[in-house]
Amino acid sequence: MTDTVQAEVIMSFLVSEELAFRIPVQLDFDIADPFAVRFTFDLPGDMPVTWVFSRELLLDGLSGPSGEGDVRIEPASEGHLGEVFISLQVGAERALFRAGVPPLVAFLDRTDRLVPLGEEEVHDTLEAVLDRILTEAPAG
């Protein structure tokens, strides 16, 4: 059994109303940090940038506005839940991305099979207990 989930999603980096670039975004989930998802954006001409945010924030953003401050996710339009906007902000700088919902749902579904939403703390405790037992077990 694997301890991680990875996926690559093509998103649109919205530079302005007239200009957008399609970019690959690596999505990562690790049971060692079951509350978080990592998005690594491979922007043209720049080094890849990784953002870490709550798996629950991503899930909530697929159906309605979610997040405060640096990360916001919301459906691209009210009546159509096929795409979401992902807004990332550092100080006055903001980057806006548009992504299709189906690959994000598929990614979240795979993470939920490893660690069901709402059971992150129980899973983390079990992992810690197993690690301690295996570490303390006498060799033989």
From TrEMBL:
Keywords: Cell cycle, Cell division, Septation, Sporulation. Its main location: other. One of its GO terms (cellular component) is cell septum. InterPro entries: SsgB (IPR006776), SsgB_sf (IPR038658). The keyword Iron-sulfur does not apply. One of its GO terms (biological process) is sporulation resulting in formation of a cellular spore. It is found in: Cell septum. It comes from the Bacteria. Belongs to the SsgA family. This is SsgA family sporulation/cell division regulator. It comes from Streptomyces gilvosporeus. The lineage of its organism: Bacteria, Bacillati, Actinomycetota, Actinomycetes, Kitasatosporales.
